[in-house]
Amino acid sequence: MGRLESQWRKGSTRRSALRGFAAFLAGSPLLRGQQDPFRDHSRVPGINELVTAFDFEPVAYVKVPREAYDYTAMGVEDEVNLRRNREAFDWVELIPKGVVDVSSVDTATEVLGTKMAFPIMVAPTAGHGQLHPEGELATHQGATAASNTPMIVSINASFPIDKIAAAAKGPLWYQLYAREDLEGNRELLDRAQAAGCQAVALTVDVQYGPHRERTQRNRNLIPPSSARQASTRRARARQGGSEISWYGAQAQTPWVDWKLVEAIRPLIQVPLLAKGILTAEDARLCVEHGLNGIVVSNHGGRYLEYAPSSLEVLPEIVDAVQGRIPVLIDSGFRRGADVLKALALGAKAVCLGRAPRWGLGAYGVPGVERVLRMVQAELVMAMASTGRPTLASIDRTLVRTDFP
Questions:
Q1: Can you spell out the DSSP letters for 128-146?
Q2: Interstrand relation of 120-122 and 114-116 (parallel, antiparallel or unpaired)
Q3: How far is 297 from 303, CA to CA, in rounded Å?
Q4: Residue 1: is its pLDDT beyond 60?
């Protein structure tokens, strides 16, 4: 009896420990935002069953490797900035307006010579090949199918820019992490412009690589391979980065200053934008140095923890620019109503980053197209409900803000 009782107690202790561990996991920030609402259905839903851009994330979650999912989903450190980007939309109210003829809602616009049916673009994000075998080729095809939505191609794309350009006919822009040497920048820019890219967005907010804790925690989930190590070395070489410590401090583009921007400018025959602007002071400097546009961005909450959301600093940047150059924005956008709020606060167009990636990982080309069409349709509905039949009729009287 003593032995049986002892074994029972040991088993009970193990069961208690397992229950405690399960409770820890249930409340862990590691899993928060990664739960799959479709899992209980024991099947992956058909694409026609999804009704919002949010629905694509859990489908992508069950289809792509954990490493690829976390790369797309994660923010920096405690992911406070990541959450703030979404919270900011709750701080802006849309004001409904009736007795207005909205039988026709016109969303067409033009930004720096690029015509678009909606003020919506695909933001530059790296490595689409980890989400789908066709990577950026499929993203470009899906974006083109969705009313010729312009796509900004990341310098760290999975495919060469000329192959991406050849995959579809929609407009392309190019995103650049500037190299320290001028000739390295010349090679990249010549290739992008030869492929037909109609503008260049120079990212200016990545002085050092961030400490993304999900990556650190995942480092032992997948055995290292020579291919992955070689890929990492190539990525660092492209960005000019060098690893400083195991903790993750890694120089990325710490040399970007106005002197380098001025040296790069003659290499670019298309409009040049600065991506990663979060203050009125930097916005004014962009105008003074002759840039053609700004992308207000905190890099999707992926670089500086406790930075403000892009949406909350948008009004001060628009005021600082005073209409001299167009102001675009990204970081946290998922809904057509989100887009409308940014337009009301002065943005010329909105760039979507994670949402098209979820579409790509979930269903490939059709997923990208459907995500974009959903957001486009929601924008039309939001414009109609607020009595704004044209983009020109959208102004700050459309919103009430309660930013902290």
A1: GGGT-TTHHHHHHHHHHHT
A2: unpaired
A3: 11
A4: no
List, as one string, the DSSP characters of 35-92.
--TTGGGTSPPPGGG--SGGGHHHHHHHHS-HHHHHHHH--STT-HHHHHHHHGGGGE
pLDDT of residue 21: 41
SS3 368: helix
- Lookup: tokens for 190: 């010549």
Q: What is the pTM of this model?
A: 0.84
Distance of CA 364 to the CA centre of its chain: 17
Alpha carbon of 211 to those of 235, 239, 247, 255: distances in Å? 17, 17, 8, 20
Contact 380, 107 (CB under 8 A): yes
Of 128, 132, 140, 299, catalytic: 299
Do 197 and 174 contact (CB within 8 A), yes or no?
Answer: yes
Average pLDDT estimate for 173-193 = 96
**Other residues' Cβ atoms within 10 Å of the Cβ of residue 223:** 6
Which residues are bridge partners to 251 per DSSP? 208, 242
Which helix or strand (DSSP H or E) is residue 161 part of?
helix 161-167
Burial 180-209 (b: 16+ CB within 10 A, else e): eeeeebeebbeebbebebbbbbbbbbbebb
Alpha helices in 179-309 (DSSP H): 182-194, 213-218, 226-239, 258-264, 280-288
Residue 299: active-site member:
yes
Mean pLDDT for the chain?
86
Are 199 and 112 spatial neighbours (Cβ–Cβ below 8 Å)? yes
How far is Cα 176 from Cα 153, in angstroms, rounded to an integer?
9
Q: CA–CA separation, 323 vs 343, rounded Å? A: 13
Phi and psi, residue 117, nearest 5°:
-75, -25
Q: Two tokens at 226?
A: 């020579």
Report how far residue 262's alpha carbon sits from residue 202's, in angstroms, rounded to the nearest whole number: 12
